[in-house]
Amino acid sequence: MANAVRAAVLGGALALGCAPMIALAAPAGSASQHYNIPAGSLNDVLNQFARQAGITLSTTPQMTQGVQSPGLQGSYSTDQALRQLLNGSGLEAVSQDGSSYVLKVLPQDAALSLPSTDVRDFALGNALGSMEGYNATHSQVATKTSTALVETSQSVSVVTRQQIDDQGSQTVAQALRYTPGVLTNPYGATHRYDYVAMRGFNDGSVDNIYLDGLKSMGDNGTYSSMQVDPYFLERIDILKGPSSVLYGRSSPGGLVALTTKKPLFDPYHQVQATVGTQGQRGVGFDFSGPLDDDKRIAYRLTGLADQSDTQFDHNEEKRYTLAPAVSIDFNENTSLTLQAYLQNDPDGGYHGGLPADGALHQRNGLRFSDHFFEGDTDIDQYKRKQQSFSYQFEHRFNDVFTARQNFRYQDSKVTMDQAYAAGWTSDPTSNELLRAYTGGDERLHSFIVDNMLQAEFFTGSAKHTLLMGADYQRRKASVDWRYGKVDSINADNPQYGNANLRDVGEGYYLRRLQQTGVYVQDLIELDKWRLSLGIRQDWVKTSDESRDIAGSRVTDERTKLTGRAGVLYLFDNGIAPYISYSESFNPNGVSDQDRKPLAPTEGTQWEAGVKYQPPGTDNLFTASVFRIDQENLASKMPQEDFYRAVGAVRSQGVELEAHVQVTDNLKVVGGYTFTDIEYSKSMPSFLSTPGTIIENKGNSPTQAPKQMYSLWADYDFRQGILDGLRVGGGARYVGYSWVDAENTMKVPAYTIVDASVGYDLGKVGLKGVDVRLNANNLTNESYIASCASLGYCYMGEERNVSATVSYQF
Fold first, then answer.
1. Which N-terminal residues, if any, form the signal peptide (predicted)?
2. Residue 547's beta-bridge partner residues?
3. Distance of CA 398 to CAs 207, 332, 457, Å?
């Protein structure tokens, strides 16, 4: 069965891959025009459309008063565009002479019979497209279709491009700092990977990052995890809780979906330069526009060069990235976007931890500074080259059926050598820090394809959006790794360049993964009810082998059926209570000390909540409660080359979130998180004899603060002598967490303050020029981000200030 499904998936890839050539030979059909109109009031959106389409549109204020529109993105004829804009509004546009239209109220039964056209490029209802401000109204992350956030029966948050810019986020993890339920950078001030812990779950990997609807195919047993710079993103969607029904193997805490910048059919050119503390300097450019007179082909070319000294001594970060893309509208029903992402990180900066004795509290009068480097200048290096090639194809057959296919090939090469802390010497009066060595040369190849067929139809008065899909992914990681010893270092007076690397050993292994999945989802709209039903079957095969040991290959094959169900009721006043159930499934793909594959982790979640969107606005308030149960977690200790099962975990809590456009000038984002996570079964001890069972049932895992809250506000002056000035500020509180699973020592809580100031120099005659100043950790709070296994702790990010000048033309 798995082979048959795999063949069907790949066959679909070939068939759909040929479709653009067929479309080129087909008649162009009726003339269409490309639109990129942001969400807003229906009246404003219709006015923008009428101007761009060159038509006259007559209506009365009473017809459109208080009605919101998701905007319009994509290529449409005038009639198609009007049907899309008025879908669900109870209005229709009647043509008078081909260039003049009059809005009329539809009879109630006629409104129900209108076919939906909300299928173009996933972008309708700003589910993936660009938008102004901080408030998204739609998202595709929970359903793979454009669904209003207020009508989604699961917690979803969205970070927009403007919020990323206003807050000066330099990594994806930083961009999520004001999102409830999310702990970013649990491993401190490192920028090498985008670690995101959600609803208390953190497995030390970045396996919960998705890019343009497809899983980022890193391997959590290697250093070859893909990282995307936020400069290349249009938005970030965050789905809380299990999501295997659509995505297959995934974390129970949730996932982070990145959407890259896509080609625009109107000219856009922007360049920027950034300088900052810690020696930061960088330049970027973002060019886009049509390539033909008919605006059927558009390009986008985005590039970035960035460098920083980092806050840690003797460490640098360098990055050079280029992302070309082309979009082709073969006709009004068929489109294709081709993308590449090429990134070279010749210096990957710092990634290490220090003993709690010396980090959290003094040891013999010593406390590590925020700059301390325990490695060695003659050894430490991290180099990463990554590239990916992808496409998104869509073809609409008729008013009912639409097919989509997303594909990505990914390749990365990593070279790493590191001297790291291995505890203190046995002399309690000494500040000599023991060190060990690890290194590796890695190559990772992967590809993933997702085929979807969407059908929209009515059964009686119930509207169905049926999604059927089949996906396949394959990954191969080849690793040559090294280990050894280096001399200790005096933490009082560190000297570098004489580490004396010795006792070096080597290992070679291959790790492979294949996953095939089929899924079905039905979204049902029945009067004010919104029902969501989904089911998925997965076949996963993993293997792990040592290339230098004959017969060492260990394979594991698993199948899993997962599901999700949700129900929501949308009141006329904008209040929408909901309840949902969802499941997750994630093969560990690793072995224990006897080279036996560990059982896959499995998670289940119950979530209930209330969403509120005041009529006539895009403001959104969400309150949710949840409970997640996960079993068969795996963890790897720093000094071990195998994994251990760590029992079961239960997480339950409350999350509150608000995205509010208070006035035309003031935007506010706020959130609160309460997470009570604990081991629901006792686990093997890592601090005593291996295999010993200790009674830690009821204890909390590390890197899981119980409480977090955040608030960010941005004010844009639009009149008077301050016209053009923008000021923003926020605060983030992270409660205490535990140093160890035995809960013997706490990591103190901390509060971080951020600020920004910007000015539009177009107000003083420099059209298109904008300046922005960002300060993260404005008060330079010194803190420990978290501590993890064996009491290793991670320094928090010190104050950093950056100034950015951009020019749009």
1. 1-25
2. none
3. 37, 11, 11
DSSP state of 163: H
Residues in CB range of 549: below 8 A, 6 or more apart: none
CA dist 84 → 107, 112, 466, 763, 784 (Å): 18, 14, 19, 37, 51
Q: How far apart are CA 759 and CA 259, in angstroms?
A: 27
What are the start-end ranges of the H helices in 343-468? Answer: 356-359
pLDDT at 641 over 80: no
pLDDT of residue 328: 96
In degrees, rounded to 5, the angle at the alpha carbon of residue 793 between the alpha carbons of residues 789 and 799 is: 150
- What structural domains does the chain harbor? 214-808 (2.40.170.20)
Q: What angle do CA 735, 736, 741 make, to 5 degrees?
A: 135
Burial-class residue 673 by CB neighbours within 10 Å (0-12, 13-18, 19+): buried
The arithmetic mean of pLDDT across residues 125-138, rounded, is: 73
| CA-based nearest residue to 249, from 540, 500, 444, 530 | 540
In a 13 Å sphere around the CA of 798, the CA atoms on its Cβ side amount to 9
| CB atoms near residue 85 (< 10 Å) | 23
Residue with tokens 């608030």, as numbered in its chain: 711
Distance (Å, whole) CA 337 – CA 571: 38
128 phi, psi to nearest 5 deg: -140, -15
Q: What proportions of the chain, in percent to the nearest 5, are helix, strand and coil?
A: 10, 50, 35
- Tell me the HSE value of 667 on the side-chain side, using a 13 A CA sphere: 19
pLDDT tens, residue by residue, 480-525: 989 999 999 999 999 999 899 998 898 888 889 999 999 999 999 9
Range list of H helices, 244-344: 244-247
257 within 8 A of 197, measured Cβ to Cβ: no
Written as one string, the DSSP assignment of 225-241 is -----GGGEEEEEEEES
Helices 42-53 and 78-86 sit at what angle, rounded to 10 degrees?
180
Q: How far apart are CA 386 and CA 8, in angstroms?
A: 29
Closest CA to 277 of 776, 770, 772: 776
Pairing of β 147-148 and β 432-459: unpaired
Say how many CA atoms lie within 13 Å of 734 toward its Cβ: 29
**Are the C-beta atoms of residues 774 and 756 closer than 8 Å to each other?**
yes
Q: What is the pLDDT of residues 216-275, one digit of tens each?
A: 877 666 778 889 999 999 999 999 999 999 999 888 999 999 999 999 999 999 999 999
Nearest residue to 757 via CA among 706, 722, 731, 791: 722
Which helix or strand (DSSP H or E) is residue 360 part of? none
Whole-angstrom distance, CA of residue 471 vs CA of residue 519: 9
- Pure H helices in 107-265: 108-113, 161-166, 172-175, 244-247
pLDDT digits (tens, 9 = 90+) for 293-330: 989 999 999 999 999 999 999 999 999 999 999 999 99
| Nearest partner of 159 among 188, 190, 196, 121, judged by Cα | 196
By DSSP bridging, strand 40-41 and strand 68-69 are antiparallel
Please answer whether residues 791 and 740 qualify as being in contact, where contact means their C-beta atoms are separated by less than 8 angstroms.
yes
Alpha helices in 65-190 (DSSP H): 78-86, 108-113, 161-166, 172-175
- Which of the 8 DSSP states describes residue 735? -
Spatial distance between the Cα atoms of 709 and 653, rounded to a whole number of angstroms: 13
Name the helix (H) or strand (E) containing 169. none
CA-to-CA distance for 142 and 157, rounded, in angstroms?
10
Radius of gyration (Cα) for the chain, nearest Å? Answer: 27
**In sequence order, which ranges of 312-426 are alpha helices (DSSP H)?**
356-359
